[in-house]
Amino acid sequence: MCQCISELDELVVTNTIPLSPAAQALGRIRQLDMSPLIAESDR
After folding, report:
1. Shortest CA distance to 29 belongs to which of 9, 43, 5?
2. 15's torsion region: left (phi>0), alpha (psi -120 to 50) or beta?
3. I want to staple 23 with a disulfide (CB 3.0 to 4.6 A). Which of 1, 9, 19, 30 is the partner?
4. What angle do CA 22, 35, 32 make, to 5 degrees?
């Protein structure tokens, strides 16, 4: 795990590409579910 010091409090990404286990373990990455938006655009 990275012990880097960052000015970022949180990184927000979409779930269109799965996060690696290492990225999931960081705790500063929040993944937004895109399925409702994609489903609505298909209507």
Report:
1. 9
2. alpha
3. 19
4. 40
pLDDT at position 42, please? Answer: 77
| Structure tokens that stand for 25 in this block | 């373990």
Residue 8 backbone phi and psi in degrees, to 5:
-80, 135
Enumerate residues 6+ apart whose C-beta is below 8 A from 15. Answer: 31, 32, 33, 34, 35
Q: What are phi and psi of 19, to 5 degrees?
A: -80, 145
Q: Which helix (H) or strand (E) holds 24?
A: helix 21-26
Report yes or no: 28 and 8 within 8 Å, Cβ to Cβ: yes
